[in-house]
Amino acid sequence: MSGTDGAEHGGTTPGPRRRGRPRRSPQDAGPGARERILQAARDEFAERGYDKTSMRGIAKAAGVDAALVHHYFGTKDDVFAAAIEISFEPALVVPAVLGQGGTDGIGERLARYFIGVWENPATRAPLLAIVRSALTNETAAKVLRTFVLRRLLERVAAELDVPDPTFRAELAASHMVGIAILRYVVKTEPLASADPERIVAMVAPTLQRYLTEA
Questions:
Q1: 83-110 pLDDT tens trace
Q2: pLDDT of 21 over the 50 cut
Q3: Mean pLDDT score across all residues of the chain
Q4: pTM over 0.90
Q5: Residue (of 158, 141, 162) closest to 150 by Cα position
Q6: pLDDT of residue 59
Q7: Which of 20, 176, 192, 210 could link 187 by a cystine bridge, Cβ 3.0 to 4.6 Å?
Q8: H/E/C letters for each residue in the chain?
Q9: CB under 8 Å to 51, separation ≥6 — which residues?
Q10: pLDDT of 61 strictly over 80
């Protein structure tokens, strides 16, 4: 075949690839590409931790080009934050914790929600990775602080119309994160094997006081 055959058959010489959004393969173009990337990110963070997880590794696990991960999420911090968000689902949680607008029982609702997230195997693994990473990596700690405080607990406290909502949210966060570390990361007994309902019953009054008492 001669070098002119392409022109004779109406072909054109491909030009240089343009930068920007990566060229998609049929798999990349599927409607579930973003969800596959996010699930792969959760698995990678859970298995490797923040420091050892890479955008390239997430892309490989999701079966997509690494540039597509950047396109959907931007940076590794953004992927990390998204992994936290799908575990906590703040858009659903805040109204559920606030209930019908009253303060009665808010400590129990918050404790039950938080323990429930950790007790669920589907959300526990990425949360373990998040907490472990936050203990040793400042970037991971910043992402955790930003999400748990600003997007979750501060929003709850602000809706209660109480003084010092940020301080109250930090107290509640310190209590719940401390329980998570001892129960699920360090696995200190007897807390590690205690019935979740017993934990909720004992923690709820403290959270109630943090969030509602003047």
A1: 777 666 656 667 777 776 567 888 898 8
A2: no
A3: 78
A4: no
A5: 158
A6: 92
A7: 192
A8: CCCCHHHHCCCCCCCCCCCCCCCCCCCCCCCCHHHHHHHHHHHHHHHHHHHHCCHHHHHHHHCCCHHHHHHHHCCHHHHHHHHHHHHHCHHHHHHHHHCCCCCCCHHHHHHHHHHHHHHCHHHHHHHHHHHHHHHHCHHHHHHHHHHHHHHHHHHHHHHCCCCCHHHHHHHHHHHHHHHHHHHHHCCCCCHHHCCHHHHHHHHHHHHHHHHHCC
A9: 133, 136, 137
A10: yes
Q: Give the CA-trace dihedral at 106, 111, 114, 117, to 10 degrees.
A: -110
Residue pointed to by tokens 């698995």: 43
Tokens 């004992």 identify what position?
A: 202
Q: What does the pLDDT average to over 182-194?
A: 93
**Assigned token pair, 175:** 């209590």
